[in-house]
């Protein structure tokens, strides 16, 4: 059995994260000792590691909640999980494209910059005032 602080330490997370996971329903409130301390079992370690690992590959807490539900639903097939992973991959590809557009725009602004010009005339700053909307802004 683990206290809240020992569980957090074991999982490499902050105690506040445990509270948050409980609040969001990702982990159930544990049993309490006679003195009122929360006592966590080994199962909590596995669940928290699952949550942390899913977060590392980009799943949101809401999506992780669904994955946890699917993990314990025997009537579903792996195909359901694979569909969610494919959807996440599509989102990641879209983010990468968006970041590449941002990178290209920043490179273009940097190339226009003239280091010796006063900052009030800086092409980077004036481009933000110009009212010209980038391709990225038009898409949003």
From TrEMBL:
All copies of domain HTH merR-type, residue ranges: 1-70
Keywords, sorted A to Z: DNA-binding
Organism: Nitrospina watsonii
Gene transcribed to yield this protein: merR
Protein's UniProt name: Mercuric resistance operon regulatory protein
Gene3D superfamilies: 1.10.1660.10
């Amino acid at each position: 059995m683990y206290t809240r602080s020992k569980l957090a330490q074991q999982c490499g997370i902050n105690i506040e994260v445990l509270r948050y996971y409980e609040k969001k329903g990702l982990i159930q409130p544990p049993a309490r000792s006679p003195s009122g301390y929360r006592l966590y079992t080994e199962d909590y370690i596995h669940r928290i590691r699952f949550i942390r690992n899913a977060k590392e590959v980009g799943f949101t807490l809401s999506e992780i909640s669904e994955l946890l539900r699917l993990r314990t639903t025997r009537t579903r097939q792996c195909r359901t999980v694979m569909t969610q992973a494919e959807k996440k991959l599509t989102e990641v590809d879209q983010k990468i494209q968006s970041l590449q557009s941002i990178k290209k725009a920043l490179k273009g602004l940097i190339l226009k910059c003239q280091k010796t010009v006063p900052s009030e005339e800086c092409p980077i700053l004036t481009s933000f005032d110009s009212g010209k909307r980038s391709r990225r802004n038009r898409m949003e």
